[in-house]
Amino acid sequence: MASFSFDTTYSLIDGATGTVVAVYDGLLYNELPHEEDADQQWLLEDAGNGLSHIRSGGNSSLYIDAGADSQTQMPCTDQKWPWRIVKYQSDPSCLIVLTPGETRCMNLLDGNSNQGAKIVTHTVLGGHNQAWIFKATP
After folding, report:
1. Residues with Cβ within 8 Å of residue 30, at least 6 apart in sequence
2. Which partner for 131 in 15, 28, 72, 76 could form a disulfide, CB atoms 3.0-4.6 Å apart?
């Protein structure tokens, strides 16, 4: 199973339906859809310091370190939505992004169920739970 890399093309998969929502490539800017607010777009960008950064319409900033060790924490710039990044213990190639205190997110994706690296985020926006799965495309 490949390690997560921002030099690879990835697909954004809706965790609820398994449908590919969008595809992004490397460190390029890409708009990702947001179910609840058409004016709110998810962006992937180079943070300029070896990290990448997913942000949503000013609500939250999520920093992803592809080389992060287990328990590495990257708080978002808007403390209303803090995040932390952990490595999936049984699959070192899989990074899982969790909101603090949320442990069930570990079960959203089986590290052995899909080919390629992936990131799972479990977000709470507008009172609704949303799970996004990022999986490497062949």
Report:
1. 22, 23, 24, 43, 44
2. 15
